[in-house]
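Quick one, tokens below. Sequence please?
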């Protein structure tokens, strides 16, 4: 399926998330993701390529297995105006779990790599969560917050009052994808992964005001329970450490009922004297 329709957000053409997750199957477990902009060259949003890679992997697993974790590395800046080929390796299909590796290429360059795992649900398993959702305003009480339109597509954001200071990027926010996603648990998991990289917990870190952009180095997501990213999800991010020109943060994603649906961690560049990677 080629990407043909376009919507305009803040004067720039961009495809909705539902369309970004439509991939064209190629021989040998390869999939093609079309370009998402025709107006200008820009770097691919990391959550986009992670969600597309997870979607490619999900198209190779047995029926009934749903993504529960991924661990990814961003290796080079991708060009959003160019197509991306996603190559899936079938590491293992066991009785309940399937392991996959995915590499994203543009031309001869590998821009992204990921390992991910899928499982068949086990009925009657115990459920527990240690973290409670923060006591925040509900999205219905808040105005829409404008994020960077070049990376948010048809994502809507609302930012509750936050007692902890942040700089430039909100570290606690409600998010949802406006255009309906397919009624498929793996597509919904990909939507959650798309949302998981929109902001950064390093916006709370000391000296963040002296640091420029924060290119991502790696990203991990654990999908504890099924969630619908067309409904409001609260993303709550917190810095853990900065050292060696890098910063690391962790986060949690809750639904409106307060259920912890996903956890995440990411390491990014964090250097005042910016050197090349």
């Amino acid at each position: 399926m080629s990407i043909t329709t376009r919507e305009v957000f803040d004067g720039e053409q961009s495809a909705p998330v539902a369309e970004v997750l439509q991939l064209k199957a190629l021989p040998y477990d390869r999939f093609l993701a079309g370009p998402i902009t025709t107006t200008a060259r820009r770097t691919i949003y990391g959550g986009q390529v992670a969600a597309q890679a997870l979607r490619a992997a999900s198209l190779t697993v047995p029926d009934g297995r749903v993504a529960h974790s991924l661990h990814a590395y961003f290796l080079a800046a991708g060009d959003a105006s160019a197509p991306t080929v996603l190559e899936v390796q079938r590491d293992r299909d066991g009785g309940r779990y399937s392991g996959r590796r995915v590499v994203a290429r543009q031309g001869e360059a590998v821009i992204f790599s990921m390992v991910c795992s899928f499982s068949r649900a086990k009925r009657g398993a115990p459920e527990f969560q240690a973290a409670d959702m923060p006591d925040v305003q509900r999205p219905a009480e808040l105005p829409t917050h404008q994020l960077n339109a070049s990376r948010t597509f048809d994502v809507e954001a609302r930012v509750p009052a936050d007692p902890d200071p942040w700089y430039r990027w909100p570290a606690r926010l409600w998010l949802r994808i406006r255009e309906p996603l397919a009624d498929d648990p793996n597509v919904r998991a990909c939507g959650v992964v798309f949302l998981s990289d929109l902001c950064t917990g390093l916006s709370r870190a000391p000296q963040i005001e002296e640091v420029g952009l924060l290119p991502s180095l790696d990203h991990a997501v654990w999908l504890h329970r099924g969630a619908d990213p067309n409904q409001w999800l609260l993303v709550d991010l917190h810095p853990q450490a900065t050292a060696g020109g890098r910063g690391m943060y962790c986060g949690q994603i809750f639904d409106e009922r307060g259920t912890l649906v996903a956890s995440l961690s990411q390491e990014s560049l964090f250097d005042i004297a910016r050197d090349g990677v």
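The first strand starts at residue 7 and ends at 9. The CA atoms of residues 240 and 249 lie 5 Å apart.
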